[in-house]
Amino acid sequence: MENLYDVIIIGAGPAGLSAGLYASRAKLNTLIIEKGIDGGQIVGTDSVDNYPGAPENTTGPSLVARMVEQAKEFGAKKVMEEVTEVDLKSQPKIIKTNQNEYQAKSVIIASGASHRFIGAPGEEEFSGRGISYCATCDGPFAEGLHVYVIGGGDAAVEESLFLTKYASKVTIIHRRDEFKAAKSIVEKAKENEKIDFMFNSQVVEIKGDKFIESFIVKDTISGEEREIGLDEGQKRHSIFVFIGYIPNTGLFTDQIDIVNGYIMTNEQCETSIPGVYAVGDVRVKNVRQVVTATGDGATAAVTAEKFIETNDL
Ligand code: NAP
Asked: What pLDDT, in 10s, does the model give residues 228-249?
């Protein structure tokens, strides 16, 4: 049957690409569907130093490029299309995109998560004109500036350290007075002379004309608000937002078990529907790292292979 695949993988981040590698290596007819840039969140990372065996100076994009190559070497097909509708309960399962309709004996959901917005007036208007969600992409534009970073997790603190390469000063604005980030990187940030902290603070409005000229910060304890203008000699503000992610599960909510937006799975990455798996940041799990995402991809592909075999599909 035309357009019938053994495995269709939705998303080409590390979890999806790893699933693609394992599935195609097992000689399953495999299709990976990605709507945008391959790699998901990791492409915004300048240095990947916690993926075992990755050579020194590995960047997110270089790691992803190799993952794509490897999956293709074993025969996985990859298309750039946007999935618009799915029927996961039928057998074969139906996946509709903006360009095609596919059928699949099994589906691996690797749709990842998108970055969260602060939701303050001015955020959307100045996005790409002073507000950024990617230090690797926009760090060089912050050369010599006093930069503000919003967030208190690993990403905010790690990216602040990275931004000190370019910025004259980095102020981390966090809504509490304790970090969610790992102690080890918080210590590194505290030791860095270029980094200072604005605790119990929330950015509630961003103002300017062509570029950001000021922003309003609210004290989360007293409720008091103050306006942060430009440092002397600086013509525009540069604000980086790293406040976590929202799982991309909108397409699946009425078909599959979802908890707090994340897909519920067991250790085999099996969802509530037979033959449907969820891998990486889109599923309920404690540790969201490239290494755990790739592990999920391998697990799901091997389980999908057994599902197809056992059910004689
Ligand atoms: P995260 O761990 O969810 O942290 C989000 C931070 O943003 C929290 O400090 C949170 O504040 C704050 N926040 C959330 N909503 C906010 C809002 N509306 N306004 C202001 N602040 C807000 O997200 P992440 O740092 O992006 O990390 C995501 C995952 O990737 C984590 O599992 C993390 O461990 C992992 N990661 C790992 C590494 C690494 O190990 N090298 C690097 C980057 C990311 P509260 O603390 O008050 O909740």
From this structure: 999 999 999 999 999 998 999 9
User: Which of 194, 223, 241 is the last residue before a domain boundary?
Assistant: 241
| Terminal C-alpha separation, the chain | 13
Name 124's Cβ contacts closer than 8 Å, sequence gap at least 6. Answer: 117
Domain that holds residue 203: 123-241
pLDDT in tens, 250-267: 999 999 999 999 999 999
Cα distance between residue 143 and residue 135, in whole Å:
12
Instruction: Give nearest CA residue, ligand 1 atom 16.
Output: 243
Active-site position among 137, 177, 196, 231: 137
CA distance 215 to 229: 7
The residues facing 212 across adjacent strands are 208
CA of 243, closest atom in ligand 1: 7
25 and 96 belong to one structural domain: yes
The HSE-up count of residue 290 (CA atoms within 13 Å, CB side) is 26
Q: Which of 6, 46, 138, 296 is catalytic?
A: 138
How many Å lie between the centroid of ligand 1 and the Cα of residue 250?
21
Nearest atom of ligand 1 to the alpha carbon of 116: 15
77 CB neighbour count, 10 Å cutoff? 14
For the stretch 98-140, pLDDT in tens is: 999 999 999 999 999 988 999 999 999 999 899 999 887 789 8
**Whether the Cβ atoms of residue 156 and residue 243 lie closer than 8 Å to each other:** yes
Which among 45, 240, 243 is the best mutation to test ligand 1's pocket, defined by most ligand atoms within 8 Å of the CB?
243
Residue where a domain stops, chosen among 203, 220, 241? 241
User: Do 104 and 251 share a domain, yes or no?
Assistant: yes
Predicted TM-score (pTM) of the model is 0.79
For this structure, is 269 an active site residue? no
Q: Are 242 and 133 in contact (CB under 8 A)?
A: yes
Residues 166 and 69 in one domain: no
